[in-house]
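Example record used in the benchmark description.
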Amino acid sequence: MATFLYKLGRLSFRRRHFAALIWVALLTLAGVGAASAPAAGNSSFSIPGTEAQKAFDLLEQRFPGTSADGATARVVFKAPSGEKMTDPGNKATVQDTVKELSDGSEVVRVTDPYQAKAVSKDGTIAYAQVSYKVSGMELDDAAKEALEDSAQDARKAGLTVEIGGDALQAVPHTGSSEIIGIAVAAVVLVITFGSLVAAGLPLLTALIGVGIGVSAITGLASALDLGTTTSTLAMMIGLAVGIDYALFIVSRYRAELAEGREREEAAGRAVGTAGSAVVFAGLTVVIALVGLSVVNIPMLTKMGVAAAGTVAIAVLIALTMIPALLGYAGRKVKPMGEKGKLLGRAKPQGETAEPVKQAKPNLGTRWASFVVRRPIAVLLLGVIGLGAAAVPATSLELGLPDDGSQPTSTTQRRAYDLLSEGFGPGFNGPLMVVVDAKGSDDPKAVFTETGDEIKGLKDVVTVTPAQPNKAGDTATITVIPGSKPSSVTTENLVHGIRDAGADIKADTDANVLVTGSTAMNIDVSQKLNDALVPYLVLVVGLAFLLLIVVFRSILVPLKAALGFLLSVMAALGAVVAVFQWGWLSGLMGVEQTGPVMSMMPIFMVGVVFGLAMDYEVFLVTRMREAYVHGEKPAQAVVTGFRHGARVVTAAAVIMMAVFAGFIGSSESMVKMIGFGLAIAVFFDAFVVRMAIVPAVLALLGRKAWWLPKWLDRALPNVDVEGEGLRAASGDDGGDRELVRV
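Model output (structure tokens):
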């Protein structure tokens, strides 16, 4: 592989005009496609195989035209202080609003609060429910504007009016913090390279890669039902890995220049060595993201595949466009050790360093030497520290965000609070029970029995009479819990109804299904929990096999996987502390604490594992490279840190800055993902890879690089260290003995 990438790097350097033109053309093509494609909203949310989804599908069959999955809006009215909603003036205002809402072309029906008994006991709060023909993702902008205008007219009459439900779905925005993240990355690159030109190359290529990826997602969004969260995730991960991959190749290029090589040769060798690490690091990320498809949640699958495509683009750009841009930059990119004009005096051409004066060991060398001398102390400190950070994860509660998790500045959240105030917390999460009595002898008796059974369960406030369909074989029953939708008590009620339904089926052969947004959230959480272990085995197993090929070792990949588990558990603990317990919630802009998003654990396992392996590959390949060329194991660790620690540190800071930029998003899911990934990178890069990894390698010594002979013969030689390049050019000169591992 190293030889092929070496040739690719040299070709891209020589044919820089052609290489740059290809990527600019792809960016233009993707941009035109995105601009001409129809707009798409948030991705539809279907969960194959769950009871809630089966109930929705059954409603579509037995209640045709009712739009069971259509958008709904609750227009909540509150009377001025000292007045009631039943006062003639307020009642007239509400009825005018209901009439105005009924005129919409996409509206199926609007309930009158006074006919539907949707007025609170104290008479101060009432609500009208609007049902639409299409889902919230497909709802026309004109319908949303009409909804808001109707509410505004009622406000002018003196009422407090807020709108809840899924009819108003705001497009999430990330805010200025995303730009701040990119600015921090730029500063880190300038400090690392000491040159604006060298620092600009990773930023430029990362932006081009993300531009192509996000534009392609936007262009295909309508056809493939991709939502705004999909492109946000692709941008988040694409920016982070795109900058990092380019950073490693540019750093290796400067190191090759420092050894006296010509620029084209240095570009080829940088791509052949660091580029090999980029390929395998990118593969681990792609495996982790594509592996999300095993969960069988379409939205999650699309998010993972789209982000994986953006990562693949980042890898290809790093391998081809970076050497092309290095060709354009020429002497403006200095050899390693030479300071540019920005941060210090550039060394005049022909001037050489004094041969007698020995360079002072860099910080990476000094740190690695310390760890090698005190491996047990560093290992224990790192493991105990991560273990302490992981403690909050033991109280992890999972759920999906609803209007109650929205910022208090939104009308959805204010409507949620008003409904809780007037009708109780469970009113925001009604359960819909679907009774399929087609195979029963007496459907009406089954409907009555089901309602009576549910009334006897704990935490039930209201059970509406059964509403049968025209055929009389299927009915719906609405159940109002006493607890809020995201509570454990409500989850227990859902399971209780389903247990009662199992008994009814045994007696009457009728199916009782529970659905609604609350039941759907519970089913999603359960499905994600059930898929976590198989997903972990699949992704870690495939990446483990890949790392065996890269490092030609059993213990090094095993240590990498165990270190990842430590970092991801610590990161989950931090997420629980902030978003569930409320620690530092004000600093993070978390207005409402509650359960952690149910897809967060499995998502973090996938993404963090891929990113963690980036640092493992980049750092440990330099150690292996030194070891196979004759250095002792402890010295190889120090050598790896001397060459790679500064670059890995810069890469980690950049990735943290990019992820942290998304904490400013208005969407709770994006905010939580941004924080979780940023803190996970911190734990993995600075505790696991920079402390635990060298400590473990120092303790293992030569055993770290052990591989059974039969497996050594069976594995392909991918030559990540670039040994084929050295052999071809005779670099070793016979003065260093290769170690067979």
